[in-house]
Amino acid sequence: xxxxxxxxxxxxxxxxxxxxxxxxxxxxxxxxxxxxxxxxxxxxxxxxxxxxxxxxxxxxxxxxxxxxxxxxxxxxxxxxxxxxxxxxxxxxxxxxxxxxxxxxxxxxxxxxxxxxxxxxxxxxxxxxxxxxxxxxxxxxxxxxxxxx
Amino acid sequence: xxxxxxxxxxxxxxxxxxxxxxxxxxxxxxxxxxxxxxxxxxxxxxxxxxxxxxxxxxxxxxxxxxxxxxxxxxxxxxxxxxxxxxxxxxxxxxxxxxxxxxxxxxxxxxxxxxxxxxxxxxxxxxxxxxxxxxxxxxxxxxxxxxxx
DNA sequence: TTTTATGCAAACATTTTGCAGTCAC
DNA sequence: GTGACTGCAAAATGTTTGCATAAAA
Lengths: 148, 148
Fold this sequence. Notes:
Strand content of chain A: 15-25%
Order of helices and strands of chain A: HHHHEEEEHE
Number of helices of chain A: 5
Largest sheet of chain A: 3 strands, mixed
Largest interface: A-B, 31 and 31 residues
Low-confidence stretches of chain A: none
Helix content of chain A: 40-55%
CATH topology of the largest domain in chain A: Arc Repressor Mutant, subunit A
CATH architecture of the largest domain in chain A: Orthogonal Bundle
Radius of gyration of chain A: 17 Å
Structural class of chain A: alpha+beta
Number of domains of chain A: 2
Oligomer: homodimer
Mean pLDDT of chain A: 90
CATH superfamily of the largest domain in chain A: Winged helix-like DNA-binding domain superfamily/Winged helix DNA-binding domain
Distance between the termini of chain A: 24 Å
């Protein structure tokens, strides 16, 4: 659904250079996990990633590697994690402009949205509290159009 | 820290009547879990609740009962749950006005805040998307004053 | 007396960790 | 060759469930 401003190849190349510069090592697992995140739908669980990478690219990745890699990607700030309330972490690429989520409590559909007023107000609130804002998550729960 | 507009005794009395009317049964476990939520700090884990109820009131409550009770309270809309990103659910009484959280990623301190502009903008965004808003969660991550 | 709630222990699901072997640089 | 990465299996963690008993209405 969502397209990014940067092509996958460019993104991957940049990322691999970045990894090298920091003294970490690249691997085909990292490459294909990233490729999968780039081209698949958002909001994948670790299990999803294992399944999809195998199905789409025929690459075997262990679930432990996925968890470790996602933690690594989060620290690199190229991935965000998301909890839709079912006790399972989901991951999405952090390449697009910041957006938030509306989650339907009936069908679990996820609607993404971005609102500039909310964004700027958050920055203001953080400043008022002498808080050094790094990231934020906003989730609206309710019923989507179909489920009302 | 936070005081509610309603006394615990009044709140408990109302709640017990409500439970009866719906055909459920009251119990001292429910009473003391509620009492603990009312008087303790916010953002307790299930484990915290077991520990505190024992310590403060010398009442034994099983962890399974806490989970079941919190689910029940959430369905009654008197409790909210909160995920601060460490994989453990935390609970707080839903008696006060809506507020959101800023969480320090270094010391895990939680700062509560309420912002009317953000609140009203959320309602607007939901409306624009034909989404029937029931609840929402907003969390800002970053560094608190002390940890910067 | 009927039905719901509780507590225990077992089950379950998700995530993390230790370790031996592999791969990148 | 060294150090980081991977995969497996085991462990750890958090949460849920089945069942017998207890308590509420």
